TrEMBL record, chain A:
Record's protein name: Peptide/nickel transport system permease protein
Keywords: Cell membrane, Membrane, Transmembrane, Transmembrane helix, Transport
Pfam family for this entry, one: BPD_transp_1
GO CC annotation: plasma membrane
Chain segments annotated as transmembrane: 25-47, 68-89, 109-129, 196-219, 239-265, 315-335, 355-377
Lineage: Archaea, Methanobacteriati, Methanobacteriota, Stenosarchaea group, Halobacteria
One Gene Ontology biological process: transmembrane transport
Superkingdom of this protein's organism: Archaea
Location(s), subcellular: Cell membrane
Recorded topology in the membrane: Multi-pass membrane protein
SUPFAM superfamilies hit by this protein: MetI-like
From TrEMBL, chain B:
Protein name in UniProt: Peptide/nickel transport system ATP-binding protein
Domain (ABC transporter) ranges: 7-272
UniProt-listed Pfam families: ABC_tran, oligo_HPY
Organism name: Halorubrum alkaliphilum
Keywords carried by this UniProt record: ATP-binding, Nucleotide-binding, Transport
InterPro entries: AAA+_ATPase (IPR003593), ABC_transp_ATP-bind (IPR050319), ABC_transporter-like_ATP-bd (IPR003439), ABC_transporter-like_CS (IPR017871), Oligopep_ABC_C (IPR013563), P-loop_NTPase (IPR027417)
MF annotations from Gene Ontology: ATP binding; ATP hydrolysis activity
Disordered as annotated region, ranges: 75-94
GO biological process annotation, one example: transmembrane transport
Family: Belongs to the ABC transporter superfamily.
Highest taxon listed in the record's lineage: Archaea
NCBIfam families: oligo_HPY
């Protein structure tokens, strides 16, 4: 028993407490606010005070520019860090349990490794490696250890042995017709893919979870209206919409992400709604309502975390769709031709498929592996995070 | 009246509307709680007992306003609210049902609840300590370390250790979880705790531990308790007074020892007879209540218990054996409801040996506890007539015959409350008949 200053529940003076301390943020939220503040300020500075042509970091002598998409990407990364990674670190025992469950699925562990490589490559690659540059003289260089008929190569960088141009380490995956290094392009494509994955997930999750929980909790005609709206969203021809917008505004990557994620949250909303309905019947929800907590707090602290496992799984399985859609549009020539995405690379290589297949195959395989990895990961997460399975295993 | 009760419930009702059709028209209502009234004094434990489906839990959640009651008053005089008064428009200032959001939140500090199922009353993804501390946080205690200290202290007080703060609900047994639930209910230092079947999901040995803990804490912090249970033996252990509920109404209320020693309502008698007695020589036969609780959407007229009552009153001029009378009424109700299938009975008996229907007749008599020959000639004639019609396949007609012949006052008159002693009341027509003084409705 504490003798100096006994802290007992029956000695709390509530009258002095109940009006103070309205703003009671968790460590995660404080971290989120503190870290995103500079990003927001930088964005404002970029938007308001320097010209379109000036690089963002010119004031410290760096020639790097940030697009609005980059700001959004940083913001989502912070979100993921403070509300997904940090909680895992804060609850080590729960994390260990999930990891134990997750580990059982070997392909998923390999997939996770691959996705971490893609993530790290996409995040750090562009900082280390300079962007692929056009150099028509060194077009169609073969990948290292492979060779190609010297007649197809204008200017072979490596040795020519018996009429065959050998690949070099300088261009480990060869070059495109324009002389861009395929390897560097793939690294830069990782950034694009990660941007697509993170930003779409955030938008879909934000809208889907809000719609789903509001619908489940409001009930009545609100529920009816929201769910019919979801039906419209689900049946909307997204591609046609995108073509229309492409015709009016042009096809930037930002526009692609915005349009496709704004029409993809319907399933998530439905899913969240049904999950919240079943969770809100649980007794612990009653118990927290009787604490006097507001509905918002109950939903935020208890309903959403308990539906999170299913939501995470569902979102993980949504990402491959977006990556494929981007690649398909790029292949059709409808994508943003200014960005070094995998789809653009594949599309650039299709005319030279006969003699320079690496231009298509290298990014194609990377894309295939990434999509496969997301699918494996989603499956494994479903098994590891599913609360029912958890209950059975006890 | 020397002291104001902590909580007084007056004519509380909770009806769930039943809606149908395209425009959601209300076609009826499930009257889960239909006008209950009682008081709980400071430091007192009131037991609310009844079989499942009688509205006990709904009563609890309505009283504590987890659900909005349909009508009625719940006056709570806890903490610093003792100077409540009635406004000009007849609304009591301490009426929970009229509390604003702000008042309601303050009320949450004064009244808490323990739930039945310990396994589902904690968020599986939150450490139990945080679950308890959340209560403090919601009410504005933003000092994280202080919250933790208070909760750790409290966990020790309910018989766990401070280090259990960081464990997850699934790492505890049911009894331990119920201790934590008790801690959660206590942490805001309430005046009233509503315990909704707090021990019915536990083993008997653990039940006793938890009950002792509840009693200890109650004595230490001067808590009032509304203790809901279907188990009379548990009620006997913890409650000062007991209210017996049947189909949304309180049929008997009184001090526990008096209700147990001298039950005044047949339903209470039946419940009490279901407590197993440890005396092997005891020959007292349990009273068996037949059938299930009628649907609260369409409760029986008059006394709601008359469809199952073993002491249902016979009309004037009739005097037959009580079990025969019960059987007659049950047969009548089943026939009217069309629940007796003569065809399948005949098939089971075999056609050959039952060409004239004697088999069916005798089977019905056995099934409904009817003697071969009722002692009252007029009643016997009516019964025979009805059975003949049943054999002819006219169940409806048979029902009509019995309905016109046999009616009990119980289904026509709503019983008033009869006061047997100071605070022992029951609602049964038997007492009207016996001419016990009836000051009826409780005065405030």
């Amino acid at each position: 028993m504490a003798t100096k200053k006994p802290e007992r529940f029956d000695q709390v003076d509530w009258s002095e407490l109940s009006e103070s301390g309205r703003l009671d943020l968790s460590i995660n939220s404080i971290g989120m606010v503190i870290t995103s503040l500079p990003v927001v300020l930088l964005g404002l500075y970029d938007w308001r005070f320097i010209g379109d042509r000036t690089d963002t970091f010119e004031f410290i002598g760096l020639s790097r520019n940030l697009e609005s998409l980059d700001y959004f990407f940083i913001f989502t990364l912070l979100l993921f860090f403070f509300y997904l990674i940090l909680p895992l670190a804060q609850n080590p025992r729960m994390t260990k349990y999930y990891w134990k469950e997750f580990k059982r699925n070997r392909p998923a562990v390999v997939s996770l490794g691959w996705l971490l490589i893609v993530f790290a490559g996409g995040l750090l690659g562009p900082l280390v490696i300079s962007a692929p540059e056009q150099d028509i003289l060194i077009g169609h260089q073969p990948p290292v250890f492979l060779s190609v008929d010297a007649a197809n190569v204008a200017n072979c960088v490596g040795d020519i042995v018996g009429g065959q141009c050998q690949g070099t380490w300088e261009y480990p995956l060869g070059t495109t017709r324009g002389g861009k290094s395929v390897f560097t392009s793939i690294i830069y494509g990782m950034t694009i893919s990660m941007q697509i994955a993170f930003i779409t997930t955030t938008i879909v999750a934000a809208i889907g979870i809000s719609f789903g929980t509001v619908s489940a909790y409001a009930g009545g005609w609100v529920d009816e209206v929201l769910m019919r709206f979801v039906d419209i969203i689900l049946s909307f021809p997204t591609l046609l919409m995108f073509l229309l917008i492409l015709y009016i505004y042009g096809a930037g990557l930002g526009m692609f992400i915005l349009v496709f994620s704004l029409f993809a949250w319907g399933g998530t909303a439905r899913y969240v709604r049904s999950k919240s309905l079943s969770v809100s019947e649980e007794e612990y929800i009653k118990a927290s309502r009787i604490s006097g907590a507001s509905t918002y707090r109950v939903v935020r602290k208890h309903v959403v975390p308990n539906t999170a496992s299913s939501i995470i799984t569902q979102l993980t399985l949504l990402i491959p769709g977006f990556l494929l859609a981007e690649a398909q549009l790029a292949f059709l020539g409808l994508g943003d031709s200014n960005i070094p995405s995998w789809g653009q690379l594949i599309s650039a290589g299709r005319s030279d498929l006969a003699f320079a297949p690496w231009i298509v195959l290298a990014p194609g395989i990377v894309l295939f592996l990434t999509i496969l990895a997301f699918n494996f990961l989603g499956d494994a997460l479903l098994d590891a995070l599913n609360p029912e399975a958890e209950a059975e295993s006890e | 009246m020397t002291e104001e009760p902590l909580l007084s419930v007056r004519d509380l009702k909770k009806h769930y509307p039943i809606k149908k059709g395209l425009f959601n028209r209300q076609v009826g209502a499930a009257k889960a709680v239909d006008g209950i009234s009682f008081d709980i004094g400071r430091g007192e434990t009131l037991g609310l007992v009844g079989e499942s489906g009688c509205g006990k839990s709904t009563a609890a959640t309505s009283i504590i306003r987890l659900e909005e009651p349909t009508s009625g008053e719940v006056i709570f005089n806890g903490r610093d609210r003792s100077k409540g008064s009635t406004n000009a428009d007849g609304v009591h200032s301490n009426d929970i049902t009229n509390f604003s959001d702000r008042e309601l939140k303050a009320f949450r500090r004064d009244a808490q609840m323990i739930f039945q199922d310990p396994s589902s009353s904690f968020d599986p993804r939150v450490k139990v300590g945080s679950s308890v501390a959340e209560m403090l946080q919601v009410h504005g205690m933003s000092d994280r370390r202080r919250r933790r200290k208070i909760v750790e202290n409290l966990l020790e007080r309910v018989g766990l250790s401070a280090s259990d703060y960081d464990r997850y609900p699934h790492e505890f047994s049911g009894g331990q979880k119920q201790r934590i639930a008790l801690a959660r209910a206590l942490v805001l230092n309430p005046d009233l705790i509503v315990a909704d079947e707090p021990v019915s999901a536990l083993d008997v040995s653990i039940q006793a531990e938890i009950l002792t803990l509840i009693k200890d804490l109650q004595a230490e912090f001067d808590l009032s308790l509304l203790f809901i249970s279907h188990d009379m033996s548990v009620i006997k252990k913890v409650c000062d007074r007991v209210a017996v509920m049947y189909l949304g109404e309180i049929v008997e209320i009184g001090p526990t020892d008096r209700v147990f020693a001298d039950p005044q309502h047949p339903y209470t008698e039946a419940l009490l007879s279901a407590i197993p007695t440890p005396d092997p020589r005891s020959t007292a036969k349990g009273i068996e209540l037949k059938g299930t609780v009628p649907s609260p959407t369409d409760p029986p007229s008059g006394c709601r218990f008359h469809t199952r009552c073993h002491r249902v009153i016979q009309p004037e001029g009739l005097d037959i054996d009580q079990s025969n009378w019960r059987g007659l009424l049950t047969l009548r109700d089943r026939l009217v409801a069309g629940a007796i299938d003569v065809e399948s009975m005949r098939e089971n008996l075999g056609v050959a040996e039952d060409s004239d229907g004697t088999g069916i007749r005798s089977q019905l008599r056995t099934e409904f506890d009817l003697e071969d020959q009722l002692s009252d000639a007029k009643a016997e004639t009516a019964l025979k007539n009805a059975l003949d019609r049943v054999v002819d396949g006219d169940s409806e007609g048979a029902g009509e015959v019995l309905t016109s012949e046999f009616t009990t006052p119980c289904e026509e008159t709503v019983p008033d409350r009869t006061r047997h002693a100071d605070d022992h009341e029951s609602a049964c027509l038997l007492h009207d008949r016996e001419g016990v003084v009836t000051p009826a409705a409780a005065d405030d």
